Amino acid sequence: MEQESFLHRVLKIVKDETAPNVPLIEFRHPKELEDILKDDISISDPVSDQQLEESVRKVLHYSVKTNKPTFKNQLYGGTDPYGLAGTWIAEAFNTSQYTYEVAPVFTLIENKMLNHILKLFGFPDGDGIFSPGGSISMLYAIVAARFKAFPEVKSKGIRNLPEMVMYSSESCHYSIMKAAHWLGLGTESVRLIKSNQCGQMVIEELETALKNDINSNKVPIMVNGTAGTTVLGAIDNLDKIADICAEYGVWMHVDACWGGSLMLSQKFRTKLKGIERANSISWNPHKMAGAPLQCSLFLLKERGLLHEANSAAAQYLFQQDKFYDVRYDTGDKSIQCGRKIDAFKLWMIWKARGDIGLNQMTDYIMELAEFCLETVALRPGFRLVSAPLQCPNVCFWYIPSFMRHQTEDEKWWGLMHKITPKIKEILMTSSRMMVAYSPHKEHKNFFRLAFTFHPKLKEKDIIEMLQAIEDCGEMITIENL
Ligand SMILES: Cc1ncc(COP(=O)(O)O)c(C=O)c1O
Known about the structure:
Layout lengths: L1 H16 L12 H7 L1 H4 L7 H13 L9 E2 L8 H12 L11 H17 L6 E5 L2 H16 L3 H4 L7 E6 L5 H8 L7 E4 L9 H13 L3 E8 L11 H11 L2 E5 L24 E4 L12 E5 L4 H6 L31 H37 L3 E3 L8 E6 L11 H20 L4 E7 L2 E8 L8 H15 L8
Helix pairs in contact: 1-4, 5-13, 6-13, 7-9, 10-11, 13-15, 14-15
Bound molecules: pyridoxal-5'-phosphate.
The site of pyridoxal-5'-phosphate has 15 residues, from helix 7.
């Protein structure tokens, strides 16, 4: 069969197009790329398998090779090969995670993974679900917190409820703002609490904000602590947040989408001390741990609440008179109907590597990040934004020679704000590297190198990346800014 032989070629196509000699990216501006790929992208007329292969190869040629060590643009990188195999198997078996009857073993695997991970995070009697990402997990968290405070919200909505408010640090991920909007609470219901120089929530400010809201008859429903902020990788003081949540009777959620992977390490899990006191946690194995996108978990301490808050009891899917134990139909806990079997790819990784392998990988990238931080601290022209290391994020400026030994006034920082993105542009258009940059609070644009399990980097890769940043930084002049 023609289609089948095409399927057999896919592995070779992907292997060729991601081979070590293939550049990270051959960047083209959108209109130019549209022109280059015009015929390849068009879909009206059918093509032969050979033409299809040519078009697919061209699509991949112009795509970013996120498996390369020089892809440092995001909080994800290359995928774990076992995870990728798991994804392919899962896609080939094309089923949904909602009922035992269509996903018998995948259901057992999801349960197994959840129980293992719940124990790891200190919720041995908890509950959870795989969700399509950290932003969706944030929606789950607020829905659970709000339902716990006002169960009637499920049937009556928020019309007759008092004004609800939530708290998170100003350095947190933006998903809480979107979730507040989507859930009808509004973005103004989120109190963005000041963070310190290291990006951690200032706990005294949290308490003051809570008191002010309570005094003005608002109802705090959730405090979101972050374990690994997007830019600096900051970990909030979770124990102190837990103390405050206990005192004021407020739901504590921890966004551990990034930093949750540190729980895999006996040595570094202590950085998240207090997470076990939370009511709910989100963790994205698709970030640091290299599970293929998307793989995210939402965990709750209280068993049953997820089902109570989200179930719709559809009689055509979750019939209670089925011939098997319907407690294994777990899909009604979810906001989704059809749901990918994301647990399987994580199971493949865990099964192959075991707790010990994942522990070692976590320790390794933390050591690598420490090496990067120490190198940046000593290397001429480089300046750290924040230290010590919390998660494996290293943030820094590169100051080109022509900018050094000058008064660092507003004008100087204004130039630095433009220099960082310009260096990125040169790095990217020359295919040397893709690296994230961001401002943070009063800090002007700086680079963020965040380390992930895959591909496994060596110290020499880090030196090469810093060298690339330096080389491109030295190409900048005032005139070409
Ligand atoms: C700290 C943190 N939380 C949540 C998210 C959102 O996760 P997702 O991209 O899976 O929606 C991110 C994404 O970068 C993040 O950095």
